[in-house]
């Protein structure tokens, strides 16, 4: 599943090519996504101009305005689901089997949504992102000043939940999915099975720093290529080559050489080192 670094990589890749451009045509080949494509999407978008792209957690926000309106008149909310990607194409590039939505731009470019599993969606927010319930319940961004060890420590008190699913709770912090939670816990030296409420403040300071380090590194490497993820320009991410624990159960720990162990936490596979993580 595309996580925060993959969505941020997509945003950075497509932004220079779509921001400020007018949408001249909208092609919907498959409307039956996880959230059905709005029936009036075409009439809302044609003639609108794309503003500055933003990201909130794993959502991509595309603000739109029309020539006779002041400021934004609505926002496209895009989620890549399990296997989705937004890619850049040009007029004349034939769509592939799972290319469901095209935004054709005034310079001949195309923003093309590809999603084999159709677990993603594109939705229209007429009043902008602020009132939307899907965004209102989210915690702080992990790379923002609002996220630190103090927040993790305070929210974890009296919590018996294991620290890994606690870290993946979007009300605690957004965008720390399975891959990056596992990697951050390894860097911080914390056993993912340990109860969240039994971890000291100093260790949460290290964990918050590790989350920042892992996500920043993943973004700089273009995300993690798992199955068929590619960024907006069609390039794969390379952070997979730097993974310390995720997907490496049974292999030797890169730090101490011990065999990495696999457990299930919150119905998700979790790999860790029993010697380096306590």
UniProtKB/TrEMBL annotation:
Q: Which residues bind DNA?
A: 98, 117, 159
Q: Which family does it belong to?
A: Belongs to the FPG family.
Question: What is the name of the protein in this document?
Answer: Formamidopyrimidine-DNA glycosylase
Task: Name the SUPFAM superfamilies on file.
Answer: Glucocorticoid receptor-like (DNA-binding domain), N-terminal domain of MutM-like DNA repair proteins, S13-like H2TH domain
| Stated role | Involved in base excision repair of DNA damaged by oxidation or by mutagenic agents. Acts as DNA glycosylase that recognizes and removes damaged bases. Has a preference for oxidized purines, such as 7,8-dihydro-8-oxoguanine (8-oxoG). Has AP (apurinic/apyrimidinic) lyase activity and introduces nicks in the DNA strand. Cleaves the DNA backbone by beta-delta elimination to generate a single-strand break at the site of the removed base with both 3'- and 5'-phosphates.
- Manner of cofactor binding, per the entry note: Binds 1 zinc ion per subunit.
Please give the cofactor(s) recorded in the UniProt entry for this protein.
Zn(2+)
State the SMART domains in the record. Fapy_DNA_glyco, H2TH
UniProt keyword annotations, A-Z: DNA damage, DNA repair, DNA-binding, Glycosidase, Hydrolase, Lyase, Metal-binding, Multifunctional enzyme, Zinc, Zinc-finger
PANTHER family named in the record: FORMAMIDOPYRIMIDINE-DNA GLYCOSYLASE (PTHR22993:SF9)
Q: What is its EC number?
A: 3.2.2.23, 4.2.99.18
The record's annotation in PROSITE patterns points to: FPG_CAT, ZF_FPG_1, ZF_FPG_2
Question: From which source organism is this entry?
Answer: Halomonas urmiana
Q: Could you describe the subunit structure of this protein? A: Monomer.
UniProt GO MF annotations: 8-oxo-7,8-dihydroguanine DNA N-glycosylase activity; class I DNA-(apurinic or apyrimidinic site) endonuclease activity; damaged DNA binding; zinc ion binding
Provide the FPG-type domain boundaries: 244-278
Which residues participate directly in catalysis? 2 (schiff-base intermediate with dna), 3 (proton donor), 58 (proton donor), 268 (proton donor)
What is one Pfam family matched by this protein? H2TH
């Amino acid at each position: 599943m595309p996580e925060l670094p993959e969505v941020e990589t997509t945003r950075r890749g497509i932004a220079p090519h779509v921001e400020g451009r007018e949408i001249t045509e909208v092609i919907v080949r498959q409307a039956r996504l996880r959230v059905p494509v709005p029936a009036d999407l075409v009439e809302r978008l044609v003639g609108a101009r794309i503003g500055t792209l933003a990201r909130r957690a794993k959502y991509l926000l595309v603000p739109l305005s029309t020539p006779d309106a002041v400021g934004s008149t609505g926002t496209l909310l895009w989620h890549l689901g399990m296997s989705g990607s937004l890619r850049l194409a040009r007029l004349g590039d034939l769509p592939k089997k799972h290319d469901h939505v095209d935004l054709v731009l005034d310079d001949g470019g195309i923003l093309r949504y590809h999603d084999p599993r159709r677990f993603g969606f594109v939705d229209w927010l007429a009043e902008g992102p602020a009132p939307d319930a899907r965004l209102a319940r989210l915690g702080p961004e992990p790379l923002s000043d609002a996220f630190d060890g103090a927040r993790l420590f305070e929210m974890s008190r009296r919590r018996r939940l294991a620290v890994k699913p606690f870290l993946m709770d979007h009300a605690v912090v957004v965008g720390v999915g399975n891959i990056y939670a596992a990697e951050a816990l390894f860097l911080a030296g914390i056993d993912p099975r340990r109860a969240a409420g039994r971890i000291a403040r100093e260790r949460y300071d290290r964990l918050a720093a590790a989350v920042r380090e892992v996500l920043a590194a993943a973004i700089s490497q273009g995300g993690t290529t798992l199955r068929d993820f590619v960024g907006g320009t069609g390039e794969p991410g390379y952070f997979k080559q730097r993974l310390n624990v995720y997907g490496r159960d049974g292999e030797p720990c890169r730090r101490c050489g011990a065999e990495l162990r696999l457990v299930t936490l919150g119905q998700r596979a979790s790999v860790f080192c029993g010697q380096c993580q306590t």
